[in-house]
Design the sequence.
């Protein structure tokens, strides 16, 4: 008998995307026994859309929000043996998504599995390159490092009950949790065959903010991590050159000539600023990290692509590198 699955979805002003995720969940070959939506102050139609589906809605005060606290609230409400975690701005490409994420948990030593993420057709070129690098086409059933991502992941509830997500981190709560799981003797699996489309359209300021808060968290988790100004410039330059080479090979250089250095400059400006941050993060800065647009503004809409599974839920033109097996 297969283990029951609860799904926890964090959201804030996701009216453009959450309906597609919830629709995809109801079409799964191994459907969830429970869907928990944790909202952190949406002012658009997010909750009205979610209420049309069989979900449990939980709210968290924006002033009290952190990624870890939101997840802990959702996991606390979850009743399933396994807890799938998804951002509200992702959606599965296939009806086999949950079943494939759950499959590695046949091993009782497995604490976490996370799936592949691909970009939609309008995602910034450099963002696409990052997703290709972070989420390759080949699975790893016994990953030896703690990288993972809670936009598309699943954890064993009994392990979460042993150690919960760090609510004080400004980001990377997934990496911190996975690191603790590995150190406690549990295993991690990467499941490339369980992809979602991750819609991530952000302005310059939002990109800077994202990488800044993640660098603040990374430094705290890993303790000895540093990045100087020269190193940040070197990494930005190297990544710009790499993106240019790949974009040229794919016939996308001209349309991304300015967008590539803009994105990479924002990425490494934010990363450098985050590593340079010292002392405790103030409440005002935390609000800026979590709500850079201010409470009450929604994200931009988007469109998607595919990979491989049993039934295609969304017909799209495949992106390069999506759908091929190795």
Sequence:
């Amino acid at each position: 008998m297969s283990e029951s699955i609860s799904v926890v979805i964090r959201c804030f002003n996701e009216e453009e995307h959450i309906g597609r995720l919830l629709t995809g969940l109801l079409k799964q070959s191994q459907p969830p026994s429970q869907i928990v939506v944790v909202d952190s102050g949406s002012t658009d139609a997010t909750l009205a859309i979610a209420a049309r589906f069989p979900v449990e809605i939980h709210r968290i005060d924006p002033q009290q929000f952190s990624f870890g606290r939101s997840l802990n609230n959702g996991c606390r409400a979850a009743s399933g043996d396994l807890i799938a975690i998804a951002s509200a701005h992702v959606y599965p490409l296939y009806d086999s998504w949950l079943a494939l994420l759950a499959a590695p948990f046949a091993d009782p030593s497995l604490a976490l599995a996370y799936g592949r993420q691909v970009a939609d057709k309008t995602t910034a070129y450099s963002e696409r390159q990052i997703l290709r690098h972070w989420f390759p086409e080949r699975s790893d059933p016994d990953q030896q490092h703690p990288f993972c991502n809670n936009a598309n992941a699943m954890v064993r509830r009994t392990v979460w009950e042993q150690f919960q997500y760090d609510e004080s981190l400004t980001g990377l709560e997934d990496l911190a949790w996975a690191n603790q799981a590995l150190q406690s003797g549990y295993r991690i699996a990467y499941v490339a065959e369980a992809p979602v489309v991750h819609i991530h359209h952000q302005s310059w300021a939002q990109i800077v903010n994202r990488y800044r808060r993640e660098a603040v968290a990374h430094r705290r988790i890993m303790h000895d991590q540093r990045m100087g100004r020269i190193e940040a410039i070197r990494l930005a330059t190297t990544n710009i050159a790499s993106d240019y080479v790949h974009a040229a090979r794919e016939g996308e250089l001209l349309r991304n000539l300015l967008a590539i250095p803009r994105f990479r400059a924002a990425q490494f400006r934010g990363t450098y600023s985050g590593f340079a941050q010292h002392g405790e993060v103030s409440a005002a800065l935390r609000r800026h990290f979590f709500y850079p647009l201010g409470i009450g503004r929604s994200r931009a809409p988007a469109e998607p692509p595919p990979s491989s599974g049993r039934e295609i839920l969304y017909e799209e033109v495949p992106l390069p590198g999506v759908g091929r097996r190795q």
In short: The longest strand covers residues 187-198.
